[in-house]
Design brief:
The structure holds 2 protein chains of 2 kinds. Chain A is mostly helical. Chain A contains 14 helices and no strands. In chain A, 70% of the residues lie in helices and 0% in strands. Chain B is mainly α. The chains are: A mainly alpha, B mainly alpha.
């Protein structure tokens, strides 16, 4: 397990192969289950780009995927594996919700900034705890991050269904935020918001920090070859804490973008699968920040297309689980079978 | 009292045993949660279909065992990352159970049926105890068990003798998947219905049992019983304190986390 956690970066072949298989799987599903398979196939491939509304929603999904995948990649590059992303996104979004619903005297921008900060801190604390435990207690960060997130998820469920719930609505969700307390929507009525621009900014920021600074170089060396780092005088364990905290912070921010940008409120289970998709996207992008954009784009296309195709063909089961599963299964493949 | 405790801890003992066996091969099976989910679902489907719990379990074990074996073989063929590929099974299990449930029963919710055969819980306790002893004997007293232990703990020994240590993962993962599926099936039979998400992270907690049991077979079984005991005490205490039941769902994970940290701190090295 210790060695397994250090995922060796798969070659490009794995990314192409897994995405191709994902597309093929969906196509086969459509061919076998849909009455009018040609029309459904068209919806699958072109649906996500067929109108400004669909384009907006797809790009918004790209933004969320990019931020959470960036979090996964930061953990990977620092020599750790963050499995608690799902809970960090959820709790981060919840923290942002609490801020956005209180402090009525604050201006919109300030409350958004504060909400982003709170979500970032919550995520960083959750991830950082696993890093600290790995460093000082030799506890596997995979297990601790997953369990910590699993233990806190019911707490968030409870808060959303209880104290934070909008009593007037039938949804298990918080009240809507005031309009000036949500991120500006770029392509209304789609869910695309300025979070897309922030996500791109974050990708470049992480790229510069990791690839263009001395501490970034140390961070990467500590992640890929701890022995070499030790000889260089910067022992890797310190970097585990940074990697996990940074990863958690980015996941928390993804939660903020989801509630303040995409939904404009916080509903129970809003993070549904975003953390796992983030792992898939990060592996497709081979944990390189700049490669995450095409990876997230392809993944969002695949996901939005398959959701649309299923809706069009009237089938009611989830394909996103299959898409995630087949990509995780194949993305690290190194040898051609 | 002891009987209730033992029946309650059967799923965790079985899944923990599976985790332990996979850990001996050097690759902890992180797909146990998915295998448990599949087990819980398939036992329901095949028991209803055949009218017999026994047949239901046999078919389920064959399917899940094959899945664990194939996954390990696939990783060996393609050089994929064993950890990431095993995670895929967890997510796939979610999709598989949901899809089949919709296709067969037209619902994603809880499955109930008067046609589901009932069985006395004592048999599961007997089975679990027997399996623990069997595993103990195979792992510590047969050449196969010796090689299995060597494959994870000191693979170079096997390499020098001309045996590929990774080969032992195939069997270990197949057995781990079967034990986890058995645990899932026991959950289904115990409540007489299939509830989606009823495994509630027990597959992950089973992985923690490996560390709480200090990585040996008897320890894991004991850890599972003690863990269940503490969990029950916690639930009773929370009932007295009138804490919302939603929060209780997080209790096992929190408890596993705390005990895991404690065991890692106590570990001598």
């Amino acid at each position: 397990m210790r060695t397994a956690g250090r995922a060796r970066f798969a070659p490009l072949w794995g990314a192409v192969f897994s995405l191709g298989s994902g597309i093929l799987l969906i196509c086969l599903l459509i061919l076998f289950t849909s009455a009018d398979s040609l029309a459904t196939l068209k919806v699958f491939f072109l649906g996500p780009w067929s109108s400004p509304w669909f384009i907006g929603n797809t790009l918004d999904m790209v933004a969320l995927l990019m931020v959470s995948a960036l979090g996964v990649a930061v953990a990977f590059r620092g020599g750790t594996f963050n499995l608690g992303g799902e809970g960090q996104i959820y709790l981060g979004g919840l923290g942002a919700t609490v801020v956005l619903l209180s402090f009525p005297t604050l201006s919109g921008t300030l409350s958004l900034l504060l909400a982003a900060l709170v979500s970032l801190v919550i995520g960083a604390l959750m991830g950082g705890l696993s890093g600290v435990l790995k460093r000082y207690a030799r506890a596997d960060e995979l297990i601790t991050s997953f369990l910590f997130s699993a233990a806190l998820t019911p707490v968030a469920d409870y808060l959303i269904a209880g104290p934070l719930r909008d009593k007037s609505g039938s949804l298990l969700a918080s009240p809507r935020f005031a309009p000036e307390r949500t991120l500006t929507h770029l392509l209304p009525p789609s869910s695309l918001s300025t979070s897309f621009l922030w996500a791109i900014g974050l990708v470049f920021l992480v790229y510069i920090l990791m690839n263009r600074t001395e501490s970034g170089y140390r961070f990467r060396v500590a992640g890929t070859s701890p022995e070499f780092a030790r000889y260089g005088g910067f022992p890797a364990p310190a970097y585990w804490v940074y990697a996990m905290a940074g990863s958690g912070a980015l996941h928390g921010l993804a939660g903020f973008f989801a509630v303040a940008g995409t939904y404009g409120l916080c509903h129970q289970g809003f993070s549904g699968g975003l953390g796992w998709s983030g792992i898939a996207v990060a592996l497709i992008g081979r944990n390189k920040p700049l490669a995450l954009f095409p990876a997230a784009l392809m993944f969002a296309w695949l996901k939005a297309g398959s959701d649309g195709a299923l809706l069009a063909s009237g089938l009611q089961f989830e394909t996103s689980a299959f898409v995630q599963a087949i990509i995780l299964l194949l993305v690290t493949v190194r040898r051609k079978p | 009292m002891i009987y209730t405790l033992l029946t309650a801890s059967v799923p965790l003992i079985l899944a923990g045993l599976g985790a332990m066996i996979s850990d001996f091969s050097g690759y902890l099976a992180v797909f146990l949660e998915g295998a448990m989910m599949l087990g819980a679902f398939f036992v329901w489907v095949f028991s209803i279909w055949s009218g017999s719990i026994f047949v239901g379990f046999i078919i389920t074990l064959l399917i899940t065992g094959l899945m664990g074996w194939l996954l390990s073989r696939f990783i060996r063929w393609t050089g994929a990352n064993p950890f990431v590929a095993a995670l895929a099974l967890n997510i796939a299990a979610l999709g598989i159970t949901e899809t089949i449930s919709v296709l067969l029963y037209n619902t994603k919710g809880v499955l109930r049926s008067p046609g589901f055969p009932a069985i006395n819980g004592i048999w599961f306790v007997v089975l679990a105890v027997a399996l623990v002893f069997l595993a103990y004997w195979v792992i510590y007293h047969t050449p196969l068990g010796l090689r299995l232990r060597a494959s994870g703990r000191s693979p170079e020994v096997l390499l020098q003798r001309g045996i590929d240590p990774v080969r032992y993962r195939d069997g270990a993962w197949a057995v781990a998947a079967m034990l986890a599926a058995l645990a899932g099936g026991v959950l289904t039979v115990k409540i007489g219905a299939y509830a989606p998400g009823g495994t509630n992270g027990q597959g992950w907690i089973a992985l923690v049992m490996v560390y709480l049991g200090f990585r040996n077979v008897g320890g894991v079984a004991l850890a599972a019983v003690v863990f269940t005991l503490i969990e029950r005490v916690g639930i009773e205490a929370q009932a007295v304190l009138a804490i919302p039941s939603t929060l209780l769902l997080g209790l096992p994970s929190l408890l596993a986390l705390l005990l895991y940290i404690l065991s890692q701190l106590l570990r001598k090295e």
